[in-house]
Amino acid sequence: MGKIRLLSDALASQVAAGEVVERPASVVKELVENSLDAGASTIEIAVQRGGIALIRVVDDGSGMNRDDALMCVERHATSKIRTKDDLAAIGTLGFRGEALPSIASVSKFRLATREPGALTGTEVLINGGKMAAVKDCGEPPGTQIEVRSLFFNIPARRKFLRTENTEFSHLEQTVRVQALAHPEVRFALVRNDRLVFQLPATKDGRDRIRGLAGADLAGRLLEVPKQTHHGVTVSGFIGPPGMGRSDRKQMLTFLNGRPVEAAMLTYALREGYHTALMKGQYPVTFLFLETDPGAVDVNVHPAKREVRFHDGNSVRDAVITAVSDTLTRQMRRPVSGVGLTGAEKPMPVPVPARAEQHELIPESEQRSLRKDWSDLASVPRPSLPGIEVGSSSSSVSEERGLSPRPDPVESPETTEKAPVEEIEERAEPDIETAPKAEDFRLLGVLGKLYVLLEGKEGLVLMDQHAAHERVLFEEMRRRMETEGVPTQALLVPLTVELAPRDFDLVSQNLETLAKLGVSAEPFGGNTLKIDALPTFLKSDDPERFIHQVIDELRGASRQTSKMRLGEDMVATTVCRHAVKANDPLHSAELDKLLRDLLVCEMPYCCPHGRPTLIQISYAELERKFGRRT
User: Fold this and answer.
1) Which helix (H) or strand (E) holds 48?
2) What is the band of 617 on the pLDDT scale with cuts at 50, 70, 90?
3) Pairing of strands 42-48, 186-191
């Protein structure tokens, strides 16, 4: 007798359940997706003991007749696809016909369903994959599914479940994600007979986010207007510069209404944020992608979490463009607590009519900077004409109506501050109009680092070190792109052996590397000979630097400037030469720093992603002082 035998249907279903049903959250995901495919407008989920004891999903969808109710619990029975052509262009959330029979094989399963207009419905009871009963029922139109005692007949799987709280947290996150993907559907979640949340149907995605994540987060998000690139439509909401998280729980992307994960999408979001996101953090995004179902393969993961795109570059470029354009266009509008975001035009700060120029970088640092960067390093620290070291800037401040900063050497003179208007009489600022320089009044400096400014909407704090980092960074990057990078020839050329694919990639981008300051040429086989490196490179391991550049080059998209490859080094260099926390600056110098910052492409965060400007609104101050509830 042979060794190979056919598995019984019950055992085959339990094996399939191991891929589809990982934990209670997996059950909820599959059942909610079926409800959405059935056109439900209301979905209610009730669980007990984290979903281990009971999961009940009730919807008001199309329901099923008796034949379909019996057929849906058979393996590979589905109404979603008919032919192999349907599999190549899946437009529904479910399609394999494995979920219900897999769930029924590892639980005590009850299905009750009725079509609208039918006199009676159908109830199906299954225990551990064995049909127990089929009978009429009087449930309302739609479908109800109860899953009790999950994994009761597979102790090995049940013991790997976590605590009830942990399992419920995964389950709740699953429901939240599905609710975000479908704001037009009403969702309710009940745990142990206590309502967790109830979300009314809405056409506004921000309302759904507000109901799940809170009004504070929803109010700070930037809206990504619907736009189409390369056949991919992108819309949704993203966090402003400076808003990051240590995990990916709030970095959500949806494709054709399906929550998806893909390494390419993660990269595209990071690239879209660029320097507006701190390293090691993940952005807050609720991004919705729409594309032809035939251009994406969702049948690559048992739980349908991952997808594969036929033209990944087009999808990546569409996401990068949508995110970067949104950040650039909307970051002129002040947003409380995070940074300033908003309109199109920069806020110029008038320069007092003086003639001389004063460099604020200490002479020792200037020499070091010139040595490292040659002509590229001649980026001035913030300065204004007519300001000499140790001189008072009160006259300049009085001309502009600013409260002067105390001189760092001499005793400060007392000046009269402009009266503050009553908050109740302040007009609401025009969202479409960018703040102007006259809207800000210099108040002073806190802790020799944070510059205090009064604006129309409240108190604005500027980090002088982070602000100057951004100014120097963009100036140096601009010069790199137009003039190239000064290089230093190596006494002994460096040879680096690369993988064949990496060698081909480098060979196609030798001109880009040369602009970055890396002189390289093929040296036989897959070996690269390096003759020169950027003068500003401070590394004891230049070979590691070459591999880092190759890694970045490999991930660069068609929409990305190749000069971004060296930006990490630029950010590190400008950090060394920017004004420090205890560097004393006069009010006119701070004024010039603010002016230079606000004309930057990304003024509200430093090259490392930290915020440069933070606003505390008058409304928030009123709440702090008990003037408003």
Assistant:
1) strand 42-48
2) confident
3) parallel
Contacts of 170 (CB under 8 A, 6+ apart): 23, 24, 25
Interval 507-538: pLDDT, tens:
888 887 887 778 889 998 889 999 988 876 66
Greater pLDDT, 407 or 235 = 235
- What is the 8-class DSSP label of residue 553? H
Segment among 35-39, 371-375, 433-437 with least mean pLDDT: 371-375
Helix 567-577, helix 363-373: angle, nearest 10: 160
Does the domain at residues 338-406+433-629 carry the CATH identifier 3.30.1540.20?
yes
Q: Residue 401 above 60 pLDDT? A: no
Q: Cα dihedral angle (550, 555, 556, 562), rounded to 10 degrees?
A: -20
The edge-to-edge listing of strands for the beta sheet with 54-59 is 130-137, 121-127, 108-114, 142-148, 54-59, 42-48, 186-191, 194-199
Domain positions in the chain are: 9-199, 205-330, 338-406+433-629
Q: Measured between alpha carbons, how far is 229 from 602 in angstroms, rounded to an integer?
A: 23
pLDDT in tens, 157-191: 888 899 999 999 999 999 999 999 999 999 999 99
Interatomic CA distance for residues 102 and 612, integer angstroms: 53
Q: How many CA atoms lie within 13 A of 460 on its CB side?
A: 24
CATH number attached to the domain at 9-199: 3.30.565.10
> From 3.30.230.10, 3.30.470.20, 3.40.47.10, 3.40.50.850, which CATH number describes the 205-330 domain?
3.30.230.10
Does the pLDDT at position 394 exceed 90? no
Classify each residue of 443-453 as buried b or exposed e, where b means 16 or more C-beta atoms within 10 Å of its C-beta. Answer: bebeeebebbb
Higher per-residue confidence, 448 vs 223: 223
Phi, psi of 406 (to 5 degrees): -55, 140
Query: 128-135 — which CB contacts under 8 Å span 24+ positions?
Result: 128/10, 128/152, 128/153, 129/9, 129/10, 129/13, 129/14, 129/101, 129/104, 129/105, 130/10, 134/66, 134/69, 134/70
pLDDT for the residue 75: 80
The neighbour count for residue 204, using CB atoms within 10 Å, is: 10
Residue 599 and residue 348 in contact, taking contact as beta carbons nearer than 8 Å: yes
> 114-128: b or e for each residue (b if 16 or more CB lie within 10 Å)?
bbeeeeebbbbbbbb
Cβ contact 32:91 at 8 Å: no
Mean pLDDT of the chain: 78
The pLDDT confidence band at residue 127, using thresholds 50, 70 and 90, is: very high
Tokens of 329: 């266009």
Tokens, residue 612: 């440069």
Confidence of residue 245 (pLDDT cuts 50, 70, 90): confident
